[in-house]
Amino acid sequence: MYYQKLNLSLPNINYADHTSHYLMTYGQKKLLTYYRLNEFATDLVAAILPSSLKPYITCIDYVYSGTTCPVIMPHIDNGVKTNINFYIETADATTSFYEPIADGLPTPISDPNAAYGNIGGKIFPWHTVKSITSFKANPGDCYLLNVSKPHSVIGLAVPNQRRFVTAMFDTLDFLTVLDHFS
């Protein structure tokens, strides 16, 4: 499986006002910038997830994409297997999933002083993947994503921004996280 829509809603606060520190920026055009949420916001988000998942949450971050680029190429996330994304603004974008037909390249990280280096992240040129499925999130939607599979974001309405809160799991695969919602 690649993704599953979840019936979860974020508590209504301004998450940009509740970041504790900058973590990193990915992509040569600074496509995604990650900020760690402060303890107050992290606790709010963790409280709406199944309690059985809490010991496995790697981190909960606020992600901002203020890019002028309408496409985030197919990629595998860096050091993470599964994400739960709570979409705040979507820029009218579609998230697509792929199966690789050739190996990808290491993911570029714009900031050499980023909190994390590249731990398994890869980017895939279009000719190295086969399209499988996609979804279009709306503001307020929540999706469980298998980010160990190549995925892209297409059709970002420029200059709109894409913002979401993500709960990341680096040790639990997609199906294991999904089982916690049964």
Query: Uncertain segments of ≥5 residues (pLDDT<50)?
Result: 113-118
Structural class: mainly beta
Number of helices: 2
Task: Quote the average pLDDT.
Answer: 83
What order do the helices and strands follow?
EEEHEEEEEEEEEEH
Helix content: under 10%
- Which strand order does the major sheet show? 1-11-6-13-4-3-2
What's the alpha carbon Rg, rounded to whole Å? 15 Å
Task: State the end-to-end CA separation.
Answer: 16 Å
What is the strand content? 35-45%
Main beta sheet, described? 7 strands, antiparallel
Extended strand count:
13
Shape: globular
If you had to describe this structure to a student in words, what would you say it looks like?
The chain is mainly beta and 182 residues long. 8% of the residues lie in helices and 41% in strands. The chain has helices at 39-47, 174-179, and strands spanning 3-6, 19-26, 32-37, 59-65, 71-76, 82-89, 94-100, 105-106, 122-123, 129-135, 142-146, 151-154, 162-169. The strands form two sheets. A seven-stranded antiparallel sheet has the order 1-11-6-13-4-3-2. A hairpin with a 5-residue loop joins strand 2 (19-26) and strand 3 (32-37). The longest helix has 9 residues, at 39-47. Mean pLDDT is 83; it is low at 113-118.
